[in-house]
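Researcher: Next entry: HTH araC/xylS-type domain-containing protein (Arsenicibacter rosenii).
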Amino acid sequence: MLPAEHTLFERLNQLIEQHLTNQDYSIDALCQELGVSRSFLFRLVKEQTGMSIARHIRQQRLIKARHLLGTTDLRVSDIAFQVGFDRLQTLSKHFTEAFGLSPSEYRSQLTGTHDLPDAFPEAAAPEPETSAVTETRPQPELPPATDLAAGKPSAKLWYWLAVPALLLILLAGSSWWFWKRSAGETDDASIAVLPFRHTGPAESQYFTEGIMEQIHRSLSYLENLKVISRNSAKTYANTTKHPAQIGRELDVAYLLEGKVVQMGKRIKLSVELIRVSENRTVWSKVYEGDQQSVLDFTNQVTNQTAAELNQKLSALTRKQLTQTPTRNIDAYREYLKGEYLLRDRTRESVLASVQNFDRALTYDPAFVDARAARAMAYFLIADDGFGPMQHYSNLAEQEALESIRLDVRNARAYTILAKMYMIQGKWKQANTAFLTALQYSPNDAQVLYAYSLFLRAIGQINRAVDYSTKALALDPLYPVIMFGHVGNLVTARRWAEAERVIQDGNRLYRTMGSWYYSTSFYYLSRRQYALSLREIQKGLRLEPTLKPLVLRHAFISARLQQPKPAQALLDSLPDNIEHYIDKAELYAGLQDKDRCLAYLQKGAAHERLPNYLKVTPLYDFLHNDPRFKALLRQVGLAEPLALNQ
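Model: Predicted structure:
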């Protein structure tokens, strides 16, 4: 770094320190005081820290908070205000993400005292817990009392010695620890592609959605760009909300909007990039012509967006962004129709999508995206029971491998293989496939989420939380990801974090019956069965026939010494492969070890086991049973797995 830049960087940190308590102090104000442009400051901070300006500011606030926790007697809420967080909860969330402990837990490690935790509504003290096969969450080590007596560093001095090391870890570690938002600190390198408006025949809606999806997917290839998942973005279809409100809700700095007008085989596509904080159109582009050349236009949109958001592209990424999936427009149309059907996830739509993918590949046998999509359709047919499981599993694997042969960077194909290997208990192969998928598509919320569930299944629970945290940041309004994130936090026994997410979920999803499966799981994991049952009953009032709720109601009732619902279900369920897991859960509720283990063993023989057998509290009453330990060995889960990371 040049001497002038070194001085400027020091001045930047001084200004951040001076204005820590001012939540409204903006990046533009920083630039004005320093006398530099926003782009220059972005480059300077990126070169020095590897972070965006907003992340660097947040890091400085967190470091200051940690210093105050160790050197003052201020309450945590007062410290939150002093370092520029508008709420205690906001500080606690980001502090925990950065350092692995809440502010109160961190202070207690240093001083041996505890701040009173915030009460979680209606949560009673947990009942005694038996041991569970879970990953132990690492805690920072402090020198033992004997070292202190011998004149070795005290806890306070130990803290000061540890600060430089911790700071280096923060600077070099994964940048996405800071993706979750805090008030007024949206990352500049963040964007949401909103649903494009469609003008034309209803039967051509698939084409408009496909164009939007193509741009979204291309932007998702950029590793250092936060791209909100289409699942969350699609909730703003036909919205009347102001861009600033959408930006706040999705925590992004930019929005990409578009409009497609179709007139026969001609198309007019208008796209504009909006900077949220200024409600300003940065640029707009219009394409008018036939459908054949529209993909070249979408590549231009992607590249110009990447340039505006200061994304440095490698030669390989640039090549990836300029490639078109196919030059055959008939193949492309059939592919888009198939993808449109595949999103519905009904038996009829998934089976129909295969026909579209077949036709696409007839037009262009080398169309890799269509082949990978057909592999996904085959996988869903097998996994959702829409057809013979083994037959369609084989087809899915063949198509995924062929897709990789044609394009070694096809993330979707690796994801399909990972899910299949997970079902088959091929844990190391699944891990490798997931990591390869994330290497080629690092911003895919669905892959991040699926990998988090895999990590939970094998007992690496805190890593599972890391990945579901990032997935939720990329897809904050997709309920399934929030549900699974709660499950990961609860399984990791990170109760305070789970409570905060549940409070958010209660605001967003209180009318969804399936949401209460997650809230019930929180109480079940703490053995507060009466409260757990209350949550399940809320869900059943909304969706009385939803199978997971019905099963869990029977399980919890049995634990409350009310066996009739479980027994009635056991009597009604056919004794076949489709219900082995269901019966194992019901017998677990009744705490009938012999029958529960018998059905788990039957399921294992057919590659049908509970997803989280190793860590779920449903089966913790079996953990000391030699037969259960033998079952874990049989499926490769008895010992911690040494996996690539």
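Model: Note for the record: The beta strands are 190-193, 197-199, 226-227, 254-263, 266-275, 280-290.
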